Amino acid sequence: MEVRRFSHGSRVPGWDEAARLSRNPAEVPDPATTPVPDELRAEIEAEMAKFPDPRSAAIPALKAAQRLHGWCSPEAIEQVACVMRVTPAYLSAVATFYDMLDTDAEGDGYRRRVYVCTNISCSLRGGRELLQKLREAVGDAEDIQVRGFECLGACDIAPMVSVDGVYVGPVEESDIEELARQIREGSEPLPDKQLIKRPSVDPEANA
Amino acid sequence: MSLHLILKNIDEPGLNTLEVYRRRGGYGERMLKALRMQPEELVEELKASGLRGRGGAGFSMGMKASFMPKGTMDKYLVCNADESEPGTFKDREIIQKIPHLLIEGMIIAAHAAGANRAFIYIRGEYVQQADILEAAVKEAYEAGLLGENILGTGMSLELTVKRGAGAYICGEETGLLDSLEGKRGHPRLKPPFPANQGLYQGPTLINNVETLSTVPLIMEMGAEEYAKIGAEGSSGTKLVSVSGNVKRPGNYEIELGIPAREIIYGLAGGPPDGRRVKLWFPGGSSSPVLTEDDLDIPYDFNSLQKAGTMLGSGAIIVVDDSHSVVDVALWTAEFYRHESCGKCSPCREGTNWTMKMMRRIRDGMATPMDLDIIESICDNMLGNCLCALGDAMAMPISSMVRKFRSEFEEYIERAREANPVLSGTVAPDEAALQGAVL
To answer: What class is the A38-97 domain?
Structure first.
């Protein structure tokens, strides 16, 4: 039986991209040569002002850039690095760590993010099948991200979905078509099943 | 008659607003009484109440506050609202419906700790809840409850809400501190503890949402009264999040020490009709699992520890007999492997290997020896990782493999028989071309 090898001949996977040794490490971007939209700059600087150490604004700054660019593209990271006066590598390290920051998208990224929980409590109630069916129902829209996600903290409405932060559930088979349509159109997802409107189930909470 | 301290009238309209909250006595006499006390007095009161951390570790809150050093340097109070432990959604209810309770608790705790700067680190996925929280903080600032010279008491506190971006390990207290500082959320070695070297290397008191939200209630009824509620070594009430195969999943406030059966069957309705409890996680997915035989255990810190598991965040996940334990173990392993930060080798490698082995079991590529290897890995990870995530994976997985060994072995056997390569229907190199890992 033939042993599978990678293109470089080894059985051990290498890096996806070889290190480009001929280039100098990227420095803090020069504001003179890095155009940053005024609104983005203002937003990032406001965040930086909230903390004793401005680097604490890394996550909110990257989120702001992601909202503008659709994802944390190299361009977005460069712009944030320019405002925050850090190297792009510093921000890449941060961006690649967190699930909500997309570093491997393309083009204009995503304008809608749909997270389907696939953790234990939701999987016990069909969360993984829901992910598959919802993906099929939403279809091939390039700017809509439908992905599985870890526990979103809404196990009481399992199986559940977060549509840009709006939690809906329990999502039954009969809801999938409607939810997919609402996702594609950008309209309010499943208004009757939104967590934010759900009262406590504790029998003595409102006694 | 059960006591509802946190969830009392929780759905009152507008409870998240300052006006309604104040009508209930919020930010009133109980807070002023606390702010007039000396910090040491306040710490003693918190110790006397027996309040134990509600985030997972269950460490005495008063004792943790007493570790803060004296001095005029910048001291930080951090609220851990990252709530990413699978099965846990109790803090979400507090933040969404009664955020001012948390803010009031933080003001009092900041006084006890001598902190002048406070942060609430809330997980990024709680978008709507974070919006509500930020609105409440704004209201508090406008009413002079935060900022300089709170209500003329001379105490000042700056409070900032910081949102996360999706990482379970940022719920680990030192991982949270690194993330708050604007880095990757890698945990730090303890000691030094956050009370000495925490946020920005300064003295930091870091507590869970529910722990801090309980502080005003303790001030109102008095530490002695609070200590009378609950069980030996576990005073007070607890919000328990019940989920999984139960009829009525949700948050329930219980007196610590009631039998687990009362929570799972009495409050949450038990598994669907015709189904039985196969296994249940008492404290989120990081706790060793229990079975149907353990349903009468008193639900409190000490009893669960004696039973070889833990209360943790107070999240009960119930699995009924319609599911295979192998599936549950696989989902658990996949979660920890995803969330491992990668800093220390035992966790980074151990979670990966365990997940791969679980997948091999599922795909019919495993032998019973894999179970011994899984147990050996878990054994080697326990106590040897930089933070508790390694233990959090090792404990439930090893408990499932131990308690359901025969089910695992039967599954392995059946899956091997169904495996096309092993049963000779598909040639190995053909399978490799199809992407199978052999």
So the answer is: mainly alpha
